[in-house]
Amino acid sequence: MIKKLLLGLLLASHVVCADDGYRLWLKYDPLPDATQRANYARSAGFIAVSGNDPVLRTAASELQAGLQGLLGKPVPVIGSAAGRTGGIVLQVGSDPALNREGYRLASRGNNLVVSANSASGVLYGAFALLRQVQTGASVANLSVTSNPKVKLRMLNHWDNVNGTIERGYAGSSLWKWYELPERIDPRYRDYARANASLGINGTVVNNVNASPRFMTDEYIKKVAALADVFRPYGIRVYLSVYFPASKVVNGPGKPALKSADPLDPAVRQWWAEKVNEIYAQIPDFGGFLVKANSEGEPGPQDYGRTHADGANMLAEALGTHDGVVIWRSFVYKPAENADRFRAAYEEFTPLDGKFHPKVIVQVKNGPIDFQVREPFSPLFGAMPKTPLAMEFQLTQEYLGFATHMVYEAPMFKECLDTDTHVKGPGSTVAKVIDGSLHGYEQTAMAGVANTGSDRNWTGHTMGQANWYAFGRLAWDHTLPSDGIAREWVQMTLTRQPKAVQTITDLMMRSREIYVNYTNPLGLHHIMGYGIHYGPEPWLDKAPRPDWRHTYYHRADSVGVGFNRTATGSNALSLYTPQVQQQWENPQTTPLPYLLWFHHVPWNQTLSTGRSLWDELCVRYYTGADSVRWMQQQWAQMKPALDPEQFDDVAGRLAVQQKEAIWWRDACVLYFGRFARRPIPAPFKAPDRSLEEVKRIVDIYQLR
Amino acid sequence: MIKKLLLGLLLASHVVCADDGYRLWLKYDPLPDATQRANYARSAGFIAVSGNDPVLRTAASELQAGLQGLLGKPVPVIGSAAGRTGGIVLQVGSDPALNREGYRLASRGNNLVVSANSASGVLYGAFALLRQVQTGASVANLSVTSNPKVKLRMLNHWDNVNGTIERGYAGSSLWKWYELPERIDPRYRDYARANASLGINGTVVNNVNASPRFMTDEYIKKVAALADVFRPYGIRVYLSVYFPASKVVNGPGKPALKSADPLDPAVRQWWAEKVNEIYAQIPDFGGFLVKANSEGEPGPQDYGRTHADGANMLAEALGTHDGVVIWRSFVYKPAENADRFRAAYEEFTPLDGKFHPKVIVQVKNGPIDFQVREPFSPLFGAMPKTPLAMEFQLTQEYLGFATHMVYEAPMFKECLDTDTHVKGPGSTVAKVIDGSLHGYEQTAMAGVANTGSDRNWTGHTMGQANWYAFGRLAWDHTLPSDGIAREWVQMTLTRQPKAVQTITDLMMRSREIYVNYTNPLGLHHIMGYGIHYGPEPWLDKAPRPDWRHTYYHRADSVGVGFNRTATGSNALSLYTPQVQQQWENPQTTPLPYLLWFHHVPWNQTLSTGRSLWDELCVRYYTGADSVRWMQQQWAQMKPALDPEQFDDVAGRLAVQQKEAIWWRDACVLYFGRFARRPIPAPFKAPDRSLEEVKRIVDIYQLR
């Protein structure tokens, strides 16, 4: 009977139990090797935890579920290990080697002890221990100490009230606003589990282009329901703010104001009351994220005030509550002869030292907008008195949506490891962010989420690795990209060593391949208008000059590139002399940054020995060819992978291959009209005209 | 080892194998009763099918997967039953008792024979046989014959190219346009399976507010890839048409035209070529669905032509291809003193007999727009020379989105069973639709889909029943609503008899309960502006008069309701005298339709013995109270249900309860200002003011 039922279950189960990617890296299928299971089992006889702290209980239950699945045996949770050995002990203590959220994994006698100075620390330690088992690492004589380098490790969701996600490519929003607070989607909890497993401790649930609804009692109740789900996982909720909310949001029994002027006492009072209203329902509310006077969003400048005036007003409204104001520096004003590259620096550096201690300024990694490669933002290192947070983008707005495989860790690391030289050699961006360079009290790193309601969370299965890598790097920016990739592959895709190596290698090359077939040599911002899909370097009409793509590449009969040296916009001068020196001379500027700073003649010979035009073609063609190579590599992985996950990626690689050639053809045909030079051998000129390529772009711009 | 692995699988499996509703009514878990399994097993020793027809192969594999799951034993598929008994034989023959898609289930000797005149017929028969087993019906001495009453049974998807769904409440579109045609989401196949199991044989994949992208080679390729997945399930793909596509869509190598005039030879040529282009890639393409000169969509009238001119142009473009043009009659023009009720009738009846034989006119069930209750559209029966298709709405645009339990079958049946009297008594709307009344060659029924990317497809688990019921009624409109509900509950939720009865009863009452707390006595179109969420009867400003809600209810100090008799708009005159007679006298008009046709004084005594005002209050209050009753009933079902499905519905019922009171309070407070009468005992006046209720509505209108 039971056999029959199991058979039935297995026969029917393909419908529900295929690996659809829902479990992310938290896959707890039994380890295939019985000896290995037995070895781990000897150290997992029980899980001892005392007290009823909800986060500690989470640590115990996650560890239990994980180990029971991986080891294929029940693992009891008990109150005390007194007199028992061969188990795992979870405990909160006071360990000088650990900061508030750090953890220690240590063998003590015959037990494994997971200790920390807080329940969250223990939770992170529990997941770290599971990671050891999932990746087949030994747990004998364990002695691991790990402290997060950044305090606030958060996701930013650009999710709208109507369920859409700005720049989202994985379905609709995870948050069901019409169902909350009464109905709790089981997925909310799984979202929290995934974040907690990485040490992510905060989430901004709504778009920075914020709806004022979130400042109403109706929606605060909904957000509070989410916060209740996230709390046991050590995750705090933050809200994006519509700056003039005081003008549109009523009481109850309290009329909206005529103003949103941050220096108006009535406005300040309005926000003080709003803050108290929020904390009454969300006692651990994290604070506000603000996009103001940016891309049409209103802000303090509408009242002749500064960003500091606006941010400080909100910070003072937070009063004694344990919350912060995260103010975005992403601003730029339309102006024909200005350089968007300079905008944030010019608006924000004069305000250094003028911000309230509760304010953090959140800066995108580069000066423009999440391009495939950008020089680091000149703001990093330029505001010693103001805590600066890093804003990375996980969702692939400029990286091929959900059909291009682009592993982002190397891109994040590239920025974090860059030396700003503001306090001499070794003044890396990472040290600005983790507070060590300027002694910031507050430190934060944010990732614009790539999650959505798609079953596998990120659309592209490989996109899960970007969520994973962001979390790991926010915890410890010194972790190597390839190590993070290897870990993720083992936990998510396969433990077969050759496959782990091959897929890790693919991931490590993927971003540079994408750069080559889309924006080589420092080209930037030439993607399809509005939707940011496909190539559109020819775009020379738009509502504002800095939305035209000819503004960025400046191709002409002489050459291509944006001269940002002293003879051009001189944006280069915003950096320290040592950095300027790296990038000021077109002869010596590293090729990846060349066209970011220089207008280079088509016939200029580069360090590769090729002319600029030839080099450009070589990169576009080899980039597109590399996608074929990626497909071939992936095809060989089939035996080591779950069929559904294999097919998902194989299908997306086929799209990527088609679009890589689309990008290549569009760009060599378009720039070729200026260069008036042939495609260098051995490459063949595209077998279609620029007009044919443009036609495809136009199709995707139709209503 | 195997035991360990299974244990591990079971311990870990809760993560993936909870009943998240993905399988819909195609749940093939082992039947709990071993004797019952054994009984069925005796008739399921094998499945015999010959030939390689893809649809026949589908029938065999679906039957195999279903029976293997339900019976917990392997069921081999073999080529011929020659000399074997105790199995199932699938065969295509020529059976005069069956139409092209009908099927017969018959015991022959010791075998069960599923026969039909086409492979699709066999497929539908196979699912019918599975339904017998799923619902515990006997398969001994089986003799079932079933023929679909309508030829085209289709879903209309209002899905946009950006992945959003107009009036969709279950996540984003199922169609991943940026991944197609290279990547095929496994879900496409499961979508086809669900439809085929109901006999749905067509799907319009894009919104009637159509993007011209679908008329480009780029998108036709994508649609063709979907058609390839659907074909083995007997489902044909249709496309909504942007009427002036010829003005915006280029070749390849073929410029767009200056015109979209249906009588312009160049335009007719353009469409003829476009049709050939489509059929070259989709040989079984079903045809076009058109929304023209409606709500701002362009159409033939822009060129001084009629709907017939436009539809006939497309029909002639289809030429000899086996496709149809489905032209929607949903039109109404802004005019202060017109009655929107009359618009479609006035525009379309003069065109009767002027349409090409390939044209079907698709009419919404009621004259306005999918309101909670509408009188049948006066077009039914008024166009004897023009095949009319029924358009029902499954997605709950006006029925509480995805948080209100409203079983729609009784609403569909209410319309289908109404007697138009156009050919004497018994001239029901159903007989118009199935062609029997006027001898239509073409017959069709369409449901505006409630599907989306949410894991359970429809957001509200109970919403699956509306998809199911539509499919069953499109096949056979004589099926009883409660029978369909019972079937669906047994296949989807539980087989526990008491629970089946209670849940069926809940479903059967659900729509009337919704009517009572939102639009009792024939009130209509008083929902929140634009988003159609919540109540907004006070709306008296809008871009067009017929978008104001005061236009519909016309409340004043005397009474409420829209006088559509001879002393009013006289829309009533569009019906036959017999129908007019039912609705012309406010004393005798059935209360559900009262305010559709009459402006009734607040103090008028109704057939219930109560004044209009008191009756209105009784319905709003009892309606809202009934939701509590629904919650109590559901709570008692817990032991009989899967925990996840139980929680899903329980959570949504809690939202429904809150919103029912919101509707009640909004409407009694608003209409009370005109009636100037107290809330009748025993009911208590709302404990909040109209302003407070309006405030909540305003919140949901914020950007």
What's this model, at a glance?
Chain A has 703 residues and is of the alpha/beta class. Chain A is 38% helix and 10% strand.
Q: What is the tally of beta strands of chain A?
A: 16
Q: Which CATH architecture of the largest domain in chain A is right? A: Alpha-Beta Barrel
- From the N-terminal CA to the C-terminal CA of chain A, the straight-line distance is 58 Å
Going by helix content, strand content and strand pairing, the class of chain A is: alpha/beta
Strand order of the largest sheet of chain A: 7-8-9-10-11-12-13-14
The largest contact between protein chains, plus residue counts on each side, is: A-B, 78 and 79 residues
Output the CATH class name of the largest domain in chain A.
Alpha Beta
Characterise this structure:
The first copy, chain A, is α/β, with parallel strands linked by helices and 703 residues long. The model of chain A is unreliable at 4-16 (pLDDT under 50). In chain A, the strands form 3 sheets. The first copy, chain A, has an 8-stranded parallel β-barrel. In chain A, strands 2-1-3-5-4-6 form a 6-stranded mixed beta sheet. A two-stranded antiparallel ribbon of chain A has the order 15-16. Chain A has 21 helices and 16 strands. Chain A folds into 3 domains: 2-146, Chitobiase/beta-hexosaminidase domain 2-like (Chitobiase, domain 2, 2-Layer Sandwich); 152-492, TIM Barrel (Alpha-Beta Barrel), CATH 3.20.20; 516-562 and 599-700, Alpha-d-glucuronidase, C-terminal Domain, CATH 3.90.1330.10. The longest helix of chain A is centred in the C-terminal third of the chain and has 33 residues, at 643-675. At the A-B interface, helix 1, helix 3, helix 20 and helix 21 of A face helix 1, helix 3, helix 20 and helix 21 of B. Chains A, B: Belongs to the glycosyl hydrolase 67 family. Chains A, B: Keywords: Carbohydrate metabolism, Glycosidase, Hydrolase, Polysaccharide degradation, Signal, Xylan degradation. Chains A, B: It is an enzyme of class 3 (hydrolase).
